[in-house]
Design a protein that fits this description.
Alpha-Beta Plaits, Hypothetical 12.0 Kda Protein In Nam8-gar1 Intergenic Region, Chain: A, about 260 residues, globular, 10 helices, alpha+beta, Arc Repressor Mutant, subunit A
């Protein structure tokens, strides 16, 4: 495969990182890379919301949930993979302080750009779009008549507003921004409720992440026993879904009360 004029990627995709004015490329399995990248994004979000530092390359390499041998076709590093030109040891050492391909694969996963297949992009975009439209249709109203918009109207407004769907971001995290974009097309607003939560200390990290995905944290406080209390504003239609997730996480130990606005 190496040193030919052109390389046939077959069913693989290219992972690339541009660093220090140089380009480094590696061959990756599209499905395994897709799952790993989504996992890493979720891990980054969890850490940031918990006030922790972003994961480092060593965290990626040593993470038991990330199987580098299955994600990468090999640990050969190229400067131009399609032309079969391998990166030099000198370039790798100058940028990464190592010429170890396994270590560099961690940089590619954490910091690099991955050329997803068009099929992956299309399928994920369609899936996210359907979820977003469902959320909006269940939680938004026309403020002029206090009635919900039909799904078809929301879908058309998203199309007319030329809304861009982020395939690596959760549907819940994109809803508020998308509603703002389509307000120029149709009169629409999200119906909001506020609830007070208390999550026991053993579940605060995951619980915080779940809450942050569903609503806006208006107030929060960490208790002496390590529990987390907060007041959260969220779309009315997502309230029961959030409560169910928190009950499942905490085995029913979460405390929830409605807050009058």
């Amino acid at each position: 495969m190496i040193d030919r004029a052109r390389i046939d990627l077959g069913d693989y995709i290219i992972g690339r990182i541009d660093k220090g004015g140089r380009t480094f490329e590696m061959l990756m399995d599209p499905e395994k890379a897709w799952e790993a990248k989504k996992y890493i994004r979720e891990e980054i979000n969890n850490r940031l919301k918990a006030g922790k530092a972003r994961p480092l390359v060593k965290d990626i390499i040593n993470n038991p949930h990330i199987d580098l041998e299955m994600i990468f076709e090999s640990f050969i590093v190229f400067e131009d993979l399609k032309r079969g030109r391998k990166a030099t040891d000198g370039d790798m050492e100058a940028i990464f302080d190592t010429n170890d391909g396994r270590t560099i694969s961690g940089y590619v996963l954490l910091e690099g750009e991955i050329q997803w297949t068009q099929k992956q992009r299309d399928e994920e975009k369609e899936k996210k779009m359907k979820t977003i439209i469902t959320i909006i249709s269940k939680n938004a109203i026309n403020p002029q008549n206090k009635k919900p918009h039909p799904v078809q109207r929301i879908e058309k407004a998203i199309e007319e507003a030329n809304v861009k769907i982020d395939i690596m971001q959760s549907a819940e995290e994109q809803v508020d921004n998308i509603v703002k974009q389509i307000q120029a097309i149709i009169p629409i607003r999200m119906e909001q409720v506020q609830i007070a939560l208390k999550i026991p200390s053993a579940f605060t990290a995951k619980g915080y992440n779940i809450v942050a995905q569903y609503g806006q944290i208006k107030q929060e406080e960490w208790q002496k026993d390590g529990s987390w209390v907060s007041i959260v504003s969220l779309p009315a239609g997502l309230q029961m879904e959030l409560i169910d997730k928190l009950n499942n996480l905490t085995h029913g130990r979460v405390q929830i009360k409605p807050v009058k606005t």
